[in-house]
Amino acid sequence: TTTKTNWHYGLVAALLGDTQSKDQFAAPSTLVQNGNQRAEDKQPRRQRNDLGKYAPIFDFLKNLSHGQQFVTLSYEKIEFMLAAKLPESSRTRAPMWWANGGHTQAHAWMKAGFRKVAHHIGASNDESWVRFEREK
After folding, report:
1. In Å, what is the CA distance from 43 to each residue of 3, 5, 128, 129?
2. Whole-angstrom distance, CA of residue 7 vs CA of residue 87
3. Would the pLDDT of 117 be above 70?
4. Which class for 11: exposed (0-12), middle (13-18), buried (19 or more C-beta within 10 A)?
5. 119 Cβ partners below 8 Å, 6+ apart?
6. Looking at the whole model, is its pTM more than 0.85?
7. pLDDT recorded at residue 136
8. Residue 102: which of 92, 84, 115, 91 has the closest Cα?
9. Burial class of residue 90 (count of CB atoms within 10 Å of its CB; 0-12, 13-18, 19+)
10. For residue range 23-43, what is the model confidence (pLDDT) as tens digits?
């Protein structure tokens, strides 16, 4: 499946009696027909506060004019937005780190309606950049 859920954390929380966190990881309701399960409704998988330190990327992209289809951000600009340095893996393993999906940072731009389309690792932060495109 391409959808990742954390329903099992909710189950553990429920078993331990932690009522605050069990709803955060609730499984989507399902229907069982002919032995197959399908999602009856889709709950938002991540909330803004689940984006951790990458929430400012979400905020920036979400607030762009809807007519703006592309945006290119230097590492310097991204680090300014985050008020923190990007991890070294964003440079040394850039194709994986900037991949669309699977990581908290990717959820930040994808939830904002963008996907990463290109990146360049230069000699310095102001020469390194990432380009995002609005999903159609």
Report:
1. 11, 10, 36, 33
2. 29
3. yes
4. middle
5. 94, 95, 98, 128, 129, 130, 131
6. no
7. 81
8. 115
9. buried
10. 444 444 333 344 443 333 333
